[in-house]
Amino acid sequence: MVVLNKIYTRTGDAGETALGDGARVAKYASRVEAYGTVDELNSTVGLARLSSEDDMDSALARIQNDLFDLGADLCRPHMEKDAESEYAPLRMIASQMDRLEVEIDVMNTDLSPLRSFILPGGTPLAAHLHLCRTVARRAERLTVGLSSTEDVNPAAIKYLNRLSDWFFVAARVANNGGQDDVLWVPGANR
C-alpha cells in the first residue's frame, strides 16, 4: 500500500531521484527517462479518456493501470535480484501483452484494409489516440535503448510495442471505423 502524506521531500533538489530499489540516480538517467516517458504516456491516455466512452473508456482505464505497472517494473533495476527482495517486485507479464493482441484483433475485424498511411487526426478521440501512439513509440525507443546497457524485463518492451499498435487501431475505430481516417497524399502540396 502506498501512502503519500507529504508530496515534497526535498530529496531531489540536487538533481537525483530514487529508483524502486532505493538506489539514487541522476534525474536524466536513461532508466528515469524511460519510466518518465511511460508516465507522460499515462497522462496522454488520461486526455484521450476525456473523449472516450463505454468499451473504449474501459480499455483505456485498463491500459492506464498497466502503465503504472510498467513504470513500477522499469523503476526497479536488477531483475536477477528479484528473488532476494523483501517483497516480489511488480513486473510486466505476457498476459498483459496478450490481452492487447486480442483487443487489437477484435477492433481490427470491421476495419477496411489501409491503402495509404494515416495522418494523425479525424475525431478528437482519434487525434488523442494518435498522440498516445507516438508517446508510446518514444517510450519504447527509450526502453529499448535502456535495455542495451541495463537489465530490462523483455515483457516491458513487448508491451510497449504492442500498445502503440493498439493505439493505432483504436484511433481508426474512433474515426468511425476508419471512415474518417485522414489519409496521406504523397506530394500533395508540391
From TrEMBL:
Q: In which pathway does it act?
A: Cofactor biosynthesis; adenosylcobalamin biosynthesis; adenosylcobalamin from cob(II)yrinate a,c-diamide: step 2/7
Q: Which InterPro entries does the UniProt record give?
A: CblAdoTrfase-like, CblAdoTrfase-like_sf, PduO-typ
Q: Which Pfam families match?
A: Cob_adeno_trans (PF01923)
Give the EC class as a word: transferase
Q: Which UniProt keywords are present, listed alphabetically? A: ATP-binding, Cobalamin biosynthesis, Cytoplasm, Nucleotide-binding, Transferase
Its annotated compartments are:
Cytoplasm
EC annotation from Swiss-Prot or TrEMBL: 2.5.1.17
The catalytic activity, as recorded, is: 2 cob(II)alamin + reduced [electron-transfer flavoprotein] + 2 ATP = 2 adenosylcob(III)alamin + 2 triphosphate + oxidized [electron-transfer flavoprotein] + 3 H(+); 2 cob(II)yrinate a,c diamide + reduced [electron-transfer flavoprotein] + 2 ATP = 2 adenosylcob(III)yrinate a,c-diamide + 2 triphosphate + oxidized [electron-transfer flavoprotein] + 3 H(+)
| Keyword Transferase applies | yes
Q: Where is the Cobalamin adenosyltransferase-like domain?
A: 7-174
A GO CC term assigned to this protein in UniProt: cytoplasm
Q: Which GO terms describe its biological process?
A: cobalamin biosynthetic process
State the Gene Ontology terms under molecular function: ATP binding; corrinoid adenosyltransferase activity
Report the main location listed first in the record: cytoplasm
NCBIfam families this protein is in?
PduO_Nterm
Give the family, as the similarity comment puts it: Belongs to the Cob(I)alamin adenosyltransferase family.
The identity of this protein, by name, is: Corrinoid adenosyltransferase
